[in-house]
């Protein structure tokens, strides 16, 4: 009877251990198969998710021994939370400035491991044909999340419409930091996903390119003014993001290489009309002041 009791306890322990192993595998941690293929879950949304599905199906991913799963999650905060909780291994949707802002606001320590592109933000209007013709008292719609509010204000400054205080914070700066507003612009904060839908209701609206594309707009052709790749816009470069403990994972680091390879770049060019400008720089470039 004692032998049977000990055998039963041992079997129960094995079942518990197996269950724990199963839960761990489902937590978002990447797994490596017997043939060396690593499964990686990439969290993404919109056109970025479309690109990563293309990469997942590519021969280059197979050659790199990566089995890439794409999990679509709506909302930037939700995406970063899912990454922090390891529901996904890495995410692909946000700018460097957005990441810095999220970490500051949430107390998280998510880490960028590769740059991908600059997706220019543009200034759009259905009423004005030239940025020089913005009228006095024009109503300007800006995204209501801190990183994109700041990004929009910097773009308005680059267009010559306002001036911002010295030391303006690219992650958390606000309309309170406007030091010169010669055209007496009025600012309205909106959910940035609604940008294309409010063009008729305001004089100017600032829209990130992912949202613009979904609204049938091409930033290079339809905007009055848009960002260019330069040291002044490096905080707006998009990055691949993971948790601190995974930043040196060899499989995750391969994702940056897959994004910048010739096949992926040709696909992006064909699908998005040059509006996702390839940027292949080390993360240290973004960290430089």
Question: Which structural traits does this protein have?
Answer:
globular, 5-stranded mixed β-sheet, 38% helix, palmitate, D-Maltodextrin-Binding Protein, domain 2, lipoprotein, Lipoprotein_NlpA, 11 helices, membrane, 289 residues, signal
Number of helices: 11
| CATH topological fold name of the largest domain | D-Maltodextrin-Binding Protein, domain 2
What is the CATH superfamily classification of the largest domain? Periplasmic binding protein-like II
Q: Could you tell me the mean pLDDT?
A: 89
Q: What fraction, in percent, of the residue positions are helical?
A: 25-40%
CATH second-level architecture of the largest domain: 3-Layer(aba) Sandwich
Number of domains: 2
Keywords: Lipoprotein, Membrane, Palmitate, Signal
Organism: Saccharibacillus endophyticus
Membrane topology: Lipid-anchor
Main location: membrane
What would you note in describing this structure?
It holds the Pfam family Lipoprotein_9. Belongs to the NlpA lipoprotein family. This protein is an alpha/beta fold and about 290 residues long. It has two domains: about 35-120 and about 235-285, D-Maltodextrin-Binding Protein, domain 2 (3-Layer(aba) Sandwich); about 120-225, D-Maltodextrin-Binding Protein, domain 2, CATH 3.40.190.10. It is about 40% helix and about 20% strand. It has eleven helices and 14 strands. It has helices spanning about 1-25, 45-55, 60-65, 75-85, 95-105, 145-160, 210-215, 220, 250-260, 260-270, 285, and strands at about 30, 40-45, 65-70, 90-95, 110-120, 120-125, 140-145, 165, 180, 185-190, 205, 225, 235-240, 275-280. Strands 1, 2, 3, 4, 5, 13 and 14 form a seven-stranded mixed sheet that branches. Strands 10-7-11-6-12 form a five-stranded mixed sheet. The protein has a two-stranded antiparallel sheet with strand order 8-9. A hairpin with a 5-residue loop joins strand 1 and strand 2 (about 40-45). The longest helix is centred in the N-terminal third of the chain and has 24 residues, at about 1-25. The chain is globular, with a radius of gyration of 23 Å.
């Amino acid at each position: 009877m004692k032998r049977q009791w000990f055998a039963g306890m041992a079997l129960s322990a094995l079942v518990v251990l197996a269950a724990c192993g199963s839960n761990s595998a489902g937590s978002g941690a990447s797994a490596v198969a017997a043939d060396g293929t690593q499964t990686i879950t990439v969290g993404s949304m919109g056109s970025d998710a479309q690109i990563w599905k293309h990469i997942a199906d590519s021969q280059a991913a197979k050659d790199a021994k990566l089995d890439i799963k794409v999990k679509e999650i709506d909302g930037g905060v939700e995406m970063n939370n899912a990454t922090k909780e390891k529901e996904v291994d890495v995410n692909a949707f946000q700018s460097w400035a957005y990441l810095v802002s999220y970490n500051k606001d949430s107390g998280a320590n998510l880490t960028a491991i590769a740059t991908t592109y600059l997706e220019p933000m543009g200034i759009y209007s259905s009423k004005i044909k030239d940025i020089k013709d913005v009228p006095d008292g024009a109503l300007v719609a800006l995204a209501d999340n801190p990183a994109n509010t700041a990004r929009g204000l910097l773009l308005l400054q680059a267009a010559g419409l306002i001036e911002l205080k010295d030391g303006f914070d690219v992650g958390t700066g606000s309309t309170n930091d406007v030091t010169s507003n010669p055209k007496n612009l009025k600012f309205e904060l909106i959910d940035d996903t609604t940008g294309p839908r409010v063009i008729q209701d305001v004089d100017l609206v600032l829209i990130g390119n992912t949202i613009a594309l979904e609204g049938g707009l091409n930033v290079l052709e339809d905007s009055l003014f848009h960002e260019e790749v330069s040291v002044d816009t490096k905080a707006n470069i998009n990055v691949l993001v993971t948790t601190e403990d995974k930043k040196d994972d060899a499989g995750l680091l391969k994702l940056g290489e897959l994004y910048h390879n010739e096949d992926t770049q040709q696909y992006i060019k064909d699908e998005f009309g040059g509006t996702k400008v390839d940027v292949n720089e080390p993360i240290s470039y973004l960290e430089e002041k």
